[in-house]
Amino acid sequence: MITNKRFQLLLPILSPLIALAQPAFGIASALIVGGMLILVAGANPITGYTALFQESLTTYFGFGNTLTKMTPLLFTSLGVLVALRAGQFNIGGEGQIYLGALGSALIGLYVQGLPSIIHIALALLAGFGFGAVWGWIPGYLKAVRGVNEVITTLLLNYIAVNLVSYLVQNPLKAPGAPSPYSPLIAKEAQLPVILPQSLAHAGIILALITALILWVLLVRSPLGYQIAAVGFNPIAAHYARISVKNTIMLVMALAGGLAGLAGASEVMGLKYRLFEQVSSGYGFDAIAIAFLSRGSIGGVVLTSLFFAALRSGANVMQRSAGVPVTIIYAIQGLTVLFIAISLAVERRIKTQTNAEV
């Protein structure tokens, strides 16, 4: 039998496993309850889930579509996560996606004559930079002026969406376009396809590499300790000679830059144009994904894949099994609910253990 003291010693080892297990628990529980909802809707849950996951994970084109949808989800979720590490709530991922898409599109449209590798790197840098500026603004307002970052990031979403809408309806609109979108970006600025004759592009590779780099940054570097210290106790961090203001501005800029890469990947790898509707709500899904992960980079990757698979296979599930697409949104919401329950249970266990010790 494991005593309380032994449990305390094992806790640092078990914590990473718990962090990965909780998204899995939330997903499994949501799928079970979602199956009950499918039964209520008059369909067969086994048939529905088989169609959903076969299409999104086991077929060539379906898996390519899943990877395509996972790319912006993963980039933006990482942005939300890095802000959470410093105790900041970045609700502005959607707007930062739009700004990142705008930055990469401008490089793709107006910079010519560069080798592909340089053009792609420059367009990605522009996407990161535009998103970073959009994230830095609320970071500055929070650090220097004390303005709540939830409000500013949320309001900046609307400004970004309407700014891009104006640009593609007016100065950036393609000649003769039947709807608001820009001309095609230069071929040299387009991300290569990684699965021939599918939608999957190199953006997913960049997103996974970014996740690995971010893990090293947050877990294995002094900067990661600095960010965690500010998130855990900003007053103590200040007395430890850590600049709380600079750290807040840094993480919000980094969060915005990562979401900007999501927008850049959509323009450079999928659409090759700047459209009025750049994102289909990826920035808001990313908030749920980041919270579900409990600060775990691995959890973000796992949950991003799950959400992408739901998006990818939803229409096929509806066509082949007669399951309404709205069930997918219910499953996403249930996943969040079950993760919240598991967090509450975990906190109660830790509290009781500490009290007994």
Structural class: mainly alpha
Q: Over the alpha carbons, how many angstroms does the gyration radius reach?
A: 21 Å
In whole angstroms, the N-to-C terminal distance is 16 Å
**Helical residue percent band:** over 70%
Q: Could you spell the SSE succession in H and E letters?
A: HHHHHHHHHHHHH
Total count of helical runs of at least 4 residues? 13
Largest sheet: none
**Segments where pLDDT lies below 50 for 5+ residues?**
none
Mean pLDDT: 89
Spatial shape: globular
* Count of beta strands: 0
Strand content: under 5%
Report on this model:
The chain has helices at residues 4-40, 45-58, 60-85, 93-110, 116-145, 149-169, 203-220, 222-232, 234-239, 244-271, 282-293, 297-321, 326-356. 78% of the residues lie in helices and 0% in strands. It has 13 helices and no strands. It starts with a helix and ends with a helix.
